[in-house]
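Example 256.
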Amino acid sequence: MTPALIFDVDGTLADTERDAHLVAFNEAFAEFCLEWYWSETLYGELLAVTGGKERIKFYLDQYLPDFPRPDDLDGFIADLHKAKTKYYNNLIASGKIPLRPGVKRLIQEAHEMGLRLAIATTTTLENVTTLLEASLDPQSVAWFEVIGAGNVVPKKKPAPDIYRYVLEKMQLTAKDCIAFEDSENGLKAASAAGLPTVITINDYTCEQDFTGALVVLDHLGEPDRPFSVIQGDVGTAQYVDVALTKLILTNANKFI
Ligand code: XBP
Ligand code: MG
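Predicted structure in complex with xylulose-1,5-bisphosphate:
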């Protein structure tokens, strides 16, 4: 069985959280003359909340209870988030944020072999298309049958809504797909939608609980840069290619 592949974006395709979202949030705070600065460590804590606007709100509630709230708090957060999205897209469009090891190779191979591909992410649609065009291939947005992003569903990850939305649009059953995620919130979302999930950890997520993931790897690997297996069994494979995704799916379905 050839699986359809559904990819998370932030932390999975590229280290966008630390290298781009965080930078863009701080640039937006400066533009708004706010004396706020999110360090890498603080941002790691704030990542518990998915969605940029939701994260700003959480920061205000948890860390700045005395900050004078504007009358239209939602409008203020929306404007701030819009500025953040502008800085984020400028940075991503510069092509300075590389994809993680193996991502380009796997997606290119899957596209050439005609596998069905999709994206399921919490971030804004524009952020996804800019990243794909700048870092994967200028034409690559069209490789993805569905890009489920941002506010198209009422509840963001760890709710399964965005994965269910993608499955529904593609008329696919979860057991015929593999989700690629980097975080516990992402795994919860994919698992609750019934999707077999491969995790590639990063510095922000390496201590999280990935019970229930099919395989946990440090990255997807390249022929000259093998992955390390943290959890699960991939035989003698050293990098994730389409052949390995088929094997992973077959093994997953044996246990259903
Ligand atoms: C990760 C997120 C996002 C980004 C911010 O999304 O939590 O909220 O940090 O994106 P995923 P926005 O891992 O699902 O790709 O500011 O555009 O909301
Ligand atoms: Mg992620």
